Amino acid sequence: MNEIRAVICDLDDTLKSRDGGLSEFTKRTIIALRNKGILFGIATGRSSNSVRRTLKEIHLLELCDVVITMNGAQEHDMKYDRKHSFFPLDKRTLVDLGKIFEPLDLNYCLYDNDYQFAKRDDLSIQRIGKNNLSIPTFSELKDLPDILYSKIMFLVPSEKKEVAMALFNQHKTAQVRGFFSDPDLIEVVDTRVSKSYAIEQFCIQHGFTIANAMAFGDHNNDVEMLKDCGIGVCVGNGNPEAKAAADYIALSCEEDGVAHFLNDFLKLELTR
Description:
Rossmann fold; Hypothetical Protein, Haloacid Dehalogenase-like Hydrolase, Chain: A, domain 2; 2 domains; eight-stranded mixed sheet
């Protein structure tokens, strides 16, 4: 087994409990991890501004060596204070993607710093906006600012999920890939974007490989990093796809699964 040099965790429903909290046991575990010289980071689908605010609120930002956001499209190396954006989408691509879903009249959602863009307001947009602490702005895709965007999400009612993904797979270009990052969200990114790619770049910058990283996750957008890192761990509340991709299954996020696994696997010798 390769030496573990970095531990990267998904945030929501993996490291944090479902009520949004982070236990003192988990914090002490991360401190013990870093005291052993192991780097620690977060990899999430959330926007950068949202994650930074959340990490500050739970007093975790100062313990992070890297924060990977937008499912791997953005990376902030906290240790060297370097920011990287990987393979953004241009406005023309977004407009073309919107045309694929026109027959279903799906709402979209995307971010630019503090702003959340959507076609129209609805409960799902309000929920996502609340999670990402963003300012809502409503616009057709063709009227968006002509800048680069990390990703786009399409909100899909449960009865339209199969049809929506079939339409996407039929008409998409080789430049993009789509996946359900939430039960009602098809997320579309450049084919090269993934949490794995961002983790790999971070590892290279620090003199080791992704084989020296341990990843924790719970959902479809974690599958690649669970497979590609040297050790992949799914928490007990994870979905079947994430569990199938993992090398190990930990306790659930409600049971401090990440902290317990790290203590046992790396022999940190902490007690709850």
